[in-house]
Amino acid sequence: MSEAPVWSVDPRTGEHRAKVTAEATAADVDTAVRAAHATRDALADRPTRAAFLRTATAELEAAREEIVAEADAETALGTVRLNGELARTCTQLRAFADVVDAGEYLDVIIDHPDDAIVPPVPDLRRYKVPLGVVAVYAASNFPLAFSVPGGDTASALAAGCPVVVKAHPDHPATSELVLAALRKAAAAHGLPETVISVVHGFDAGLALIRHPLVAAAGFTGSVRGGRALFDAAAARPTPIPFHGELGSLNPVVVTRAAAADRAEEIGAGLAGSMTLGVGQFCVKPGLVLVPEGTDGDHLVDTLSQSVAATAPGVLLDHRMRDNFLAGIAERLGLPGVDAPVTAGADGDHGVRAGVLSVSAAALAASGTHDALLEECFGPVTVVARYTDDGQVNAVLDRLPGNLTATLHVSPRESEGEGDAGALLARLTELAGRIVVDGWPTGVAVAPAQHHGGPYPSTTSTSTSVGTTAIERWLRPVAYQNTPEALLPPELRDANPLGLPRRVDGRREV
Amino acid sequence: MSEAPVWSVDPRTGEHRAKVTAEATAADVDTAVRAAHATRDALADRPTRAAFLRTATAELEAAREEIVAEADAETALGTVRLNGELARTCTQLRAFADVVDAGEYLDVIIDHPDDAIVPPVPDLRRYKVPLGVVAVYAASNFPLAFSVPGGDTASALAAGCPVVVKAHPDHPATSELVLAALRKAAAAHGLPETVISVVHGFDAGLALIRHPLVAAAGFTGSVRGGRALFDAAAARPTPIPFHGELGSLNPVVVTRAAAADRAEEIGAGLAGSMTLGVGQFCVKPGLVLVPEGTDGDHLVDTLSQSVAATAPGVLLDHRMRDNFLAGIAERLGLPGVDAPVTAGADGDHGVRAGVLSVSAAALAASGTHDALLEECFGPVTVVARYTDDGQVNAVLDRLPGNLTATLHVSPRESEGEGDAGALLARLTELAGRIVVDGWPTGVAVAPAQHHGGPYPSTTSTSTSVGTTAIERWLRPVAYQNTPEALLPPELRDANPLGLPRRVDGRREV
Fold first, then answer.
1. Which one of A144, B186, B471, B493 has the fewest CB atoms closer than 10 angstroms to its CB?
2. How many domains does chain A fold into?
3. What pLDDT was estimated at residue B509?
4. Are A467 and A101 in contact (CB under 8 A)?
5. Three-class SS state of B400
6. Angle, CA B166 vertex, CA B164 and CA B172 arms, to 5°
């Protein structure tokens, strides 16, 4: 059997641009994983890893024009967005280089012997070690920041874990180009190039998650694809952690007072957020609770005008376009669903953004409108009009887990008046990031960031953005009664590496 | 259909002592979980939780005599051991009370806005919130420290999670007695008694892991039982974290130099560790690599003499006794397996400890001796005699994951001479706690403790002993651009609760 070709496709035309490579066979995957596994010792040195990550940013910057052009040709995301995404990608790599240098992620804890405790405490020293080879499943919608050089890769390499990326079929050429830049950076620091590899193909992705030497996985994509891989990871003879970011509705609640205060600002802001990147963000606000009445009408009118005036766009691939159009049609077919702006096809390759509207009462009723509670990937949002707080809570009670939840309040509510605090507490149960008076799109790379939430938004309690994402690829190990000469330097009393640590309950920064 | 009775059984006689209660039906489990879920708000106050945990220790101490007598009658573990276990249980509860007070587990991170970063960082504040109702599966071999009032319960309550315990059938009366003490402590602080509940029965355990309002689970037990529950947790419509401690062989490597230096001390120490608690510890050393030759012979002779002189004991229940005797017979039937001391039955209810012996070469060969690489619960260990380091590594290559790995070295090796460092690094890949010149039995409760390791020893990367065990029951949540008045007090700039935190990259202790 000949190997299946991997094509780079132009979503603006549907045409095949070039044959990039062939899909990886099971043997290819095995070779890649074994080669990655063999680099663990080389990756063990922290200063080398930090330097590698920094050089990676330099190599990516050096190839910026070529990378952005290739990614734009494959994804139609546009050069402005892609230049920004490359900058974000470099920010992530640098942030993890800093994390590696700081060493706080090692979570060093040292307890000297204490016979006064029952049972007695011997000499115990704990830190964290890398899990092993990490499989990264690249996202369609971020050809850089959540793909080959993205946050999963950066955090895994930072942790000392070699990486095998399953490339997304929407950007195979970009994947190979970026891989070359990362491997050049590895070579510059004497690291084997196989600290990172890329494989292509659906079957390769399955072979990867099942490989005995793969120790953990990161995934960004759909609920269906992510759940299938999660199930495969859990069904292994040796199950492995699967950190998947699947799907999210990202509900927004606009209080009555907020609508009264700034209906236009909220309507226009929502239009900008839901159409950004042609609605292809995992944190796109997909459900917005707006009060019935004049102020709410005003908000929806502004939203609709802005969305109607939004230029058509091209989705990442034609399958997504088909799904988007089918999703709109399915939702429009539900009883009581209106379309203040009808999303739809634009020519043979593009799409127009739209707005759907329904009563909160219909949405809160069991069963009939469940399609509106599922993510519809693309430039559309659902406005649910409510008459009272009871309806808001009834809708929230029906929501699955989310990456984000957003609350718009009035200035007085901001100061604590009314029930905004209780609403915020309720939203906290539903999501991993709570945004007030803003929009969930735009996920900052920062220590306090959390990009993850109750299932199905993620399959674990960890984050895929922000510096704590490194925690996913480590496991603690404790040494008991171990002579100084045999201890890893990270755990020696003299602290030769100058690491932050907790010793006998006291933090040493 | 009438409900199945739950009997308290005396393992020393096999007689039914008393009917304790009935097995929980699915409706009973639902009631318990819903009642637990309803207590989340009551558990939200940290000072109340800490006080509750401390009062729990007082209530357990007040009922000490009754608890120890009941547990001894049900488990035959003896009053000395059980008094120690109760002290350990109280140590754990107090340690988690201290953790709750200190608040470092909340992992507060605050980033103020920074427009200089790409993409710009808004105001972001992160901390950790409780996951929800935690299901705890009690262990047979620790009726207190890993059961109703044990580490899983203590850490979950400390995190703010209500608990429903699936009691172990080996100690139902103790479970109910201890539950009463914990509920008395809850009431003393105005908490609903349903912050903790107990259910009995195999089917109840399955209903519990599948309940939609159960958010996470902790388990200590067998590979078979733990894997079945892990699979059920992963197969839920909404999968949940399952922190299971299943089985572990706990390998020990005695270097040639160590055997030359102190064969007797090691042999006697090993006998003590492997027979402690009638060999019913999850960290019992179950496989010991000993050099061929005179020194190794001397070690095995000392071990054998000590084991042969060990008084017979009673296992936790008759099923375990049957499994132990069948396991010994199966292993003795393998080619080349000797029994320097033959384990076996003692009367109708007891067992005698034993030692098995095999060549490392046979053990390293694929397939034929795999039964020796599985945990045999009870007072037996397997000595594998090696001729060179290659054989040691070949055996280690065949081992599954372990809670612990132990290395015995000579004084010179302690100082860095020879290959002990490399051996320690190799053992680190196989286990979560590495012990040098000691024994794995005796798991201290301390911040640096790690009780967990690669599968099947645990199903996650977390620990079930030590203060970091609280991390299992929490998830981070980030607040973006949230007005001070709406922020949880934990995240306000003024730090009204005086919590340790990281602000703009700087740690404030």
1. B493
2. 2
3. 80
4. no
5. coil
6. 120
pLDDT for B366 equals 74
Instruction: Give the percent of chain A with pLDDT over 70.
Output: 100
In chain B, the residue whose alpha carbon lies closest to the alpha carbon of A434 is B479
Do residues A65 and A203 both lie within one domain? Answer: yes
- Reported ipTM: 0.97
Asked whether residue A426 falls in the same domain as residue A467, the answer is: no
Question: Using one digit for the tens of pLDDT, what is the confidence trace for A163-196?
Answer: 999 999 999 999 999 999 999 999 999 999 999 9
Phi, psi angle pair for A217, to nearest 5° = -140, 150
**Residue range B308-348, pLDDT digits in tens:** 999 999 999 999 999 999 999 999 999 999 999 999 999 99
| B292 DSSP 8-state letter | S
Q: Does B266 reside within a domain?
A: yes
Task: Tell me if chain A has a CB within 8 Å of the CB of B489.
Answer: no
Same domain, yes or no: A264 and A219:
no
Catalytic residues of A: 245, 282
Q: A497 near A105, Cβ under 8 Å?
A: no
Say if B493 falls within a structural domain.
Answer: no
Residues 6+ away with beta carbon under 8 Å from A176:
A20, A21, A167, A198
Q: Are residues B135 and B184 in the same domain?
A: yes
| Helix or strand (DSSP H, E) at B363 | helix B360-364
Residue B345: inside a domain, yes or no? yes
> A119 — contact with chain B (CB < 8 Å)?
yes
Kindly name the residue from B70, B245, B375, B413 that is annotated as catalytic. Answer: B245
Token pair of A150 as six digits: 């993205």
Output b/e per residue, B126-160; b: 16+ Cβ within 10 A: bbbbbbbbbbbbbbbbbbbbbbbbbbbbbbbbbbb
pLDDT of residue B2: 58
Q: Name the residue range of residue B172's domain.
A: 24-101+129-246+461-474
Cα–Cα separations (whole angstroms), residue A11 to A15, A77, A142, A171:
7, 10, 15, 10
The runs of H, that is alpha helices, within B38-147 are: 46-62, 64-75, 79-102
Same domain for B468 and B376, yes or no, is no
Size of interface A-B (CB pairs under 8 A): 240
In chain B, residues with a C-beta closer than 8 Å to the C-beta of A456 are 238
Judged by CB atoms closer than 8 Å, whether chains meet at A459 and B239 is answered as yes
Q: Are residues B376 and B431 in the same domain?
A: yes
Which residues in chain A are closer than 8 Å to B450, comparing Cβ atoms?
126, 476-478
* Cα B499 from Cα B217, distance rounded (Å): 28
State the pLDDT at residue B367.
80
**Do residues B367 and B383 share a domain?**
yes
For A95-140, how does the pLDDT look when each residue is reduced to its tens digit (9 = 90+)? 999 999 999 999 999 999 999 998 999 999 999 999 999 999 999 9
A1 pLDDT exceeds 70?
A: no
pLDDT at B178 over 60: yes
Strand B350-352 relative to strand B313-314, pairing: antiparallel
